[in-house]
C-alpha cells in the first residue's frame, strides 16, 4: 500500500476474510483445516497478524474460542471446514449459545454450484446451526466478505451476545479472484438495534420498590459478567447492604469473600441463598434468567416476592417467572442510572427491618454452612477444591466440565472476581473444561489456569493434551477421579435405588502415564496426605502442564440439593437430612 | 386465544426458515402462514395465525423480535383489522347438483373459476370462518380438492405496519 494511493487494495476472498479478522483485532483463530477452507488457510499462511491454533477436534476449537470470550469479553473466532468439520463444532456452538457467549464461527462450504447436490463433505450448516446461533449467514459474493465479517462481530458482541456462523462456499475464496478490500468502520441494521439504556421511569420505579423492601435480595447472573457490571453491582449492593446471591453463571460477579455474599442459589445452591430467595419480599434480578435449575417448581417460586428484573433480552423477562418491574437494558448503564438516582435522593432501606433480615440470614447460614463429612479412607472432593483455592490464592481462572466436580468447584472455590469461573452452565457440556482452560491460558499465559474435571468429562476431549504440548499451554488439570459418572450415580442413588446403570467406568486409563505419553507431567494422589505436596509441586511447575489424577470418595454426593417439584427452599442437606 | 401476527421481514434467504424454525423449536402452534414480498422488494410481509394464552403470545412476539431479520411486528388481533383468506374448492357435480352448487357459491359470493363436464372449481374469499361455513354448506357434494391460502390481514383505519 502506498500512502498517497487511496485505491483500496485488491484481495482474494480468503485474504479478505483474514484481513477483516485482523482489522477486527482478532489475535487467534482456533480451527482445523480441510478441503473447503484450504484457500483460507493458504491466505492465513501468508500473513502474521492473525495466528492459528490447530486443535485435535473441532469441538475443542469452539470451546477454546468460547472460553477466551468468557475471560476477555471479546468474541472468539473458530475456523472449520465443511461437513464433519462443521458438525463437530455444533456442540461448542450450542454451548456458547446457551450461555450467551460472543463467538464467530467460520465454516467452509462446498462450491456454490455443488450446494444441494449432496457433494463430498456437504452439510447444510445454516440449517443445522439455525436453532443454536444468534444469527447465521452465507457468503454469496466474495466482495461481501468484509461487510459480513463486520456484521457477524457486531451481532455476536452486542445486545445479548451469542454465536454467529458464517458459511463460506469454497469458490468465494479463490486466490486468483481479487476484489477491492475495505473494512467497514461501523454498521447499522434496520432490523436489529438492541436497547441499551433502560427506561428511566422503570428504573425509578424499581429503585422505589427496592428501597421499600424489608427482606430484599439481589440475584445476579451471567449478564453482570457479560455486561462488565460487577463494579456497579458491588457498589449498589454495598450502599444498600443487600444480601447477594450469584447464579452458577454469575459466580464472581459479586465477591464470594464479602460478608454480604450468601452463596450460589438454585439446585445446588447454599441453604441460606435458597431460603433468602424463598422468603424475600423483593427480588432484584440482574442479568439472570430464572432458569429451571434456579427456580425449582415455578408454581411454588418465592410466593411473597415483588420481582424487579433487568435484562438486555426482553424474551428473558417474564418467560418462566412473571416480573413485576421489568427493565430492558444493558446491566451496566441501568445500574449506573440507579446509582445516580440513589445518589440524588439518598434513599435507604428501613434499617430496622433490614437488620432483622440479616439476623435471620445469619441463622440460616448456620444451618448447613457448606459442611461436608470427612472420611478416614477417602479424600473428599470438596477438600481438594478448598486446597486448590489455597494454592492459587483464590486468583486462578477455573474452568470445569460438567457433573459433581463442577458443582464442588462452584461451591468451594470462592470466586472474588468476574470472568474467572468458566463453565458450561446452560448446555452442560462434558468435554468443555480442558479446551476452555487452553483458550484462557493462550491469552493469559502468566495467569494460573486450572481445569477442574472428572474422569468421565476429561476423556471427552482428552486428545487436546496434544494441542497443549504444541502450544505450550501449561494448564493444571485437577481430575476428581471417583471411578463413576458421579452426578449420574448421585441421581441413581437418590432416585433409582442405587442401580448404577452405565455410570461406572471400567478400564480407565492410567492418567499419569497418559499425561506422560503426551509429554506432560502426571501426578497421582490417592491419600489425603499426598494432596498438599502434589499441589505444591504442580503449581511450582510453571512451564509444565500437570495432570493431577486425584482419587476421591466415590460415595460423595453434592449437597444441598433442591427437592424436585418443591419450592426453592426445599432441599436435601445430606444423605440423611432434608428441610 | 387466536392471534394474527403480521411480520415485516428482510427478504433474505433463510429468513422464513428462521421464523418457522422458531415455532417448531419452542413448541408454538402455526394455524396458517402466508408470506410474499411487499411493494419494497427488500421486505417480505408474513401473516401468521397462532394460538396461545397471553403469556405464550408475549413470548412468541418477543422471540420473533429477537430474530435479526425481523424488522417490525404487530399483533393485528389487538385492534380492529381485516382478515381475508382465499380458498379454491374442486367439487364433483352431477347434472342435478350443478344448479344447487352454483347457488351456494353465489350466496357466499364465490366464483366458479373453472368447469369440466363433471366438476366445478369455486373460489371463495373471506374470513376463515366464512370458508369453513362454505365447506359445511357444500354438504352432500363430493369435494375432490381444497386449497386455502392461509390468512392475510391488515389493520383498519389509518394505522399501518410499514417502515
Question: Strands, helices and their partners?
Answer:
The complex is a heterodimer of chains A (579) and B (163).
Chain A: E1 9-12, H1 13-23, E2 28-32, H2 38-45, E3 51-54, H3 58-72, E4 76-80, H4 84-88, H5 90-98, E5 103-109, H6 125-129, E6 135-138, H7 145-157, E7 163-169, E8 178-181, H8 200-211, E9 216-220, H9 222-226, H10 230-240, E10 244-246, E11 261-264, H11 271-279, E12 282-286, H12 292-295, E13 306-311, E14 325-328, H13 331-345, H14 351-367, H15 381-391, E15 397-400, H16 404-412, E16 421-422, H17 433-443, E17 449-454, H18 465-471, E18 476-481, H19 486-495, H20 511-517, E19 521-525, H21 528-540, E20 546-551, E21 561-562, E22 571-572
Parallel strand pairs in A: 2-3, 2-4, 4-5, 5-7, 6-7, 9-10, 9-12, 10-11, 12-13, 13-14, 15-16, 15-17, 17-18, 18-20, 19-20
Antiparallel strand pairs in A: 1-8, 21-22
Helix pairs in contact in A: 1-2, 1-7, 3-5, 3-17, 8-13, 10-13, 11-14, 15-16, 15-21
Chain B: E1 2-10, H1 15-25, E2 32-37, E3 43-51, H2 54-66, E4 70-75, E5 81-92, H3 95-107, E6 111-115, E7 119-126, H4 128-137, E8 142-148, E9 152-155
Antiparallel strand pairs in B: 1-3, 1-4, 2-3, 5-7, 5-8, 5-9, 6-7
Can you give a write-up of this model?
- The complex is a heterodimer of chains A (579) and B (163).
- The longest helix of chain A is centred in the middle third of the chain and has 17 residues, at 351-367.
- With 579 residues, chain A is α/β, with parallel strands linked by helices.
- Chain A contains 21 helices and 22 strands.
- A 6-stranded parallel β-sheet of chain A has the order 3-2-4-5-7-6, with helices on both faces.
- Chain B has 163 residues and is of the alpha+beta class.
- Chain B folds into 2 domains: 2-78, 2-Layer Sandwich (Alpha-Beta Plaits); 82-152, 2-Layer Sandwich (Alpha-Beta Plaits).
- In chain B, 29% of the residues lie in helices and 40% in strands.
- The longest helix of chain B has 13 residues, at 54-66.
- The A-B interface holds A 126-127, 130-131, 134-138, 155, 189-192, 313-315, 318-319 and B 10, 13-14, 17-18, 21, 25, 55, 58-59, 62-63, 65-66, 68-71, 163.
Amino acid at each position: 500500500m502506498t500512502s498517497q494511493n487511496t485505491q483500496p487494495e485488491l484481495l482474494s476472498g480468503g485474504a479478505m476474510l483474514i484481513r477483516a479478522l485482523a482489522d477486527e483485532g482478532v489475535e487467534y483463530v482456533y480451527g482445523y483445516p480441510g478441503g473447503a477452507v484450504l484457500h483460507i488457510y493458504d491466505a492465513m499462511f501468508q500473513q502474521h497478524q492473525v495466528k492459528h491454533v490447530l486443535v485435535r477436534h473441532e469441538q475443542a476449537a469452539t470451546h477454546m474460542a468460547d472460553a477466551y470470550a468468557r475471560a476477555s469479553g471479546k468474541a472468539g473466532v473458530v475456523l472449520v471446514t465443511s461437513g464433519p468439520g462443521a458438525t463437530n463444532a455444533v456442540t461448542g456452538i450450542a454451548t456458547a449459545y446457551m450461555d450467551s457467549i460472543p463467538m464467530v464461527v467460520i465454516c467452509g462450504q462446498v462450491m456454490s454450484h455443488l450446494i444441494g447436490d449432496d457433494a463430498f463433505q456437504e452439510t447444510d450448516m445454516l440449517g443445522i446451526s439455525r436453532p443454536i446461533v444468534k444469527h447465521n449467514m452465507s457468503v454469496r459474493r466474495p466482495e461481501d466478505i468484509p461487510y459480513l465479517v463486520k456484521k457477524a462481530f457486531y451481532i455476536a458482541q452486542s445486545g445479548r451476545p451469542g454465536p454467529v456462523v458464517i458459511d463460506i462456499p469454497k469458490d468465494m475464496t479463490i486466490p486468483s479472484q481479487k476484489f477491492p478490500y475495505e473494512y467497514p468502520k461501523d454498521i447499522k441494521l434496520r432490523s436489529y438495534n438492541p436497547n441499551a439504556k433502560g427506561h428511566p421511569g422503570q428504573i425509578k420505579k424499581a429503585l422505589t420498590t427496592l428501597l421499600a423492601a424489608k427482606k430484599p435480595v439481589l440475584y445476579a447472573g451471567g449478564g453482570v459478567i457479560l455486561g462488565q457490571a460487577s463494579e456497579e453491582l458491588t457498589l449498589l449492593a454495598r450502599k444498600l447492604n443487600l444480601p447477594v446471591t450469584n447464579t452458577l453463571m454469575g459466580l464472581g460477579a459479586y465477591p464470594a469473600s464479602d460478608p454480604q455474599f450468601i452463596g450460589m442459589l438454585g439446585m445446588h445452591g447454599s441453604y441460606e441463598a435458597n431460603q433468602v430467595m424463598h422468603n424475600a419480599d423483593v427480588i432484584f434480578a440482574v442479568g439472570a434468567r430464572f432458569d429451571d435449575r434456579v427456580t425449582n417448581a415455578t408454581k411454588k417460586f418465592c410466593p411473597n416476592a415483588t420481582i424487579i428484573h433487568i435484562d438486555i433480552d426482553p424474551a428473558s423477562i417474564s418467560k418462566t417467572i412473571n416480573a413485576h418491574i421489568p427493565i430492558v437494558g444493558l446491566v451496566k448503564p441501568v445500574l449506573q442510572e440507579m446509582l445516580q438516582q440513589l445518589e440524588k435522593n439518598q434513599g435507604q432501606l428501613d434499617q430496622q427491618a433490614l437488620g432483622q433480615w440479616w439476623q435471620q440470614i445469619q441463622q440460616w447460614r448456620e444451618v448447613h454452612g457448606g459442611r461436608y463429612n470427612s472420611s478416614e479412607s477417602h479424600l473428599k472432593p470438596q477438600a481438594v477444591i478448598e486446597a486448590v483455592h489455597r494454592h492459587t490464592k483464590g486468583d486462578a481462572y477455573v474452568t470445569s466440565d460438567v457433573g459433581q466436580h463442577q458443582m464442588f468447584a462452584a461451591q468451594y472455590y470462592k470466586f472474588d472476581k468476574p470472568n474467572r469461573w468458566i463453565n458450561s452452565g446452560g448446555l452442560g457440556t462434558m468435554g468443555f473444561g480442558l479446551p476452555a482452560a487452553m483458550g484462557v491460558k493462550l491469552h493469559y499465559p502468566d495467569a494460573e489456569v486450572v481445569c477442574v474435571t472428572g474422569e468421565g468429562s476429561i476423556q471427552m476431549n482428552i486428545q487436546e493434551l496434544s494441542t497443549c504440548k504444541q502450544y505450550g499451554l501449561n494448564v493444571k488439570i485437577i481430575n476428581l477421579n471417583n471411578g463413576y459418572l458421579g452426578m449420574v450415580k448421585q441421581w441413581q442413588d437418590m432416585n433409582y435405588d442405587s442401580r448404577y446403570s452405565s455410570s461406572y467406568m471400567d478400564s480407565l486409563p492410567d492418567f499419569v502415564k497418559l499425561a506422560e505419553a503426551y509429554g506432560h507431567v502426571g501426578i497421582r494422589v490417592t491419600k489425603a496426605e499426598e494432596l498438599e505436596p502434589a499441589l505444591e509441586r504442580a503449581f511450582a511447575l510453571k512451564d509444565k502442564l500437570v495432570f493431577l489424577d486425584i482419587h476421591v470418595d466415590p460415595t460423595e454426593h453434592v449437597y444441598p440439593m433442591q427437592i424436585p417439584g418443591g419450592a426453592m427452599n426445599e432441599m436435601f442437606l445430606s444423605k440423611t437430612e432434608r428441610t | 386465544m387466536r392471534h394474527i401476527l403480521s411480520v415485516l421481514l428482510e427478504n433474505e434467504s433463510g429468513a422464513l426458515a428462521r421464523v418457522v424454525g422458531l415455532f417448531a423449536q419452542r413448541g408454538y402452534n402455526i394455524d396458517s402462514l402466508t408470506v410474499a414480498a411487499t411493494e419494497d422488494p427488500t421486505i417480505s410481509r408474513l401473516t401468521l395465525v397462532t394460538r396461545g394464552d397471553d403469556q405464550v403470545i408475549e413470548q412468541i412476539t418477543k422471540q420473533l423480535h429477537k430474530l435479526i431479520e425481523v424488522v417490525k411486528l404487530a399483533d393485528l388481533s389487538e385492534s380492529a383489522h381485516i382478515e381475508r383468506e382465499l380458498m379454491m374448492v374442486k367439487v364433483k357435480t352431477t347434472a342435478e347438483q350443478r344448479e344447487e352448487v352454483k347457488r351456494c357459491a353465489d350466496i357466499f359470493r364465490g366464483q366458479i373459476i373453472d368447469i369440466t363436464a363433471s366438476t366445478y372449481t369455486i373460489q371463495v374469499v373471506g374470513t376463515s370462518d366464512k370458508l369453513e361455513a362454505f365447506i359445511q354448506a357444500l354438504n352432500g357434494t363430493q369435494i375432490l380438492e381444497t386449497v386455502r391460502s392461509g390468512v392475510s390481514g391488515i389493520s383498519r383505519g389509518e394505522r399501518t405496519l410499514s417502515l
